[in-house]
Specification:
Blueprint lengths: L15 H18 L2 H8 L6 H35 L3
């Protein structure tokens, strides 16, 4: 078995392009996980019970936090681009 070592990035300066890619990946991840509460409800026979209600609520609470951070980062990116004169 071969070991794989990831080399450290040689990046020394912030990258707007990398930040945009990060946001795109996070938006994609959000869209893929958006159906999770519905799947949890379906697994419970479309009947809410204590177990799936807790799972759904926990997922939604984490989603709210993720969205707050994502929205903040989107605004930061726009602010950075505006101050750098990037369209």
């Amino acid at each position: 078995m071969q070991d794989t070592t990831l080399s450290a990035s040689g990046q020394k300066r912030p990258s707007v392009t990398l930040m945009e890619e990060n946001l795109r990946v996070r938006l994609e991840r959000f869209s893929f996980s958006a159906h999770t509460p519905l799947e949890q409800l379906r697994e419970g026979g479309y009947t809410l019970n204590a177990r799936n209600t807790e799972k759904i609520a926990s997922h939604l609470e984490l989603t709210i936090l993720d969205l707050k951070y994502l929205i903040n980062d989107l605004y930061w990116l726009q602010w950075i681009k505006a101050h750098k004169g990037i369209k």
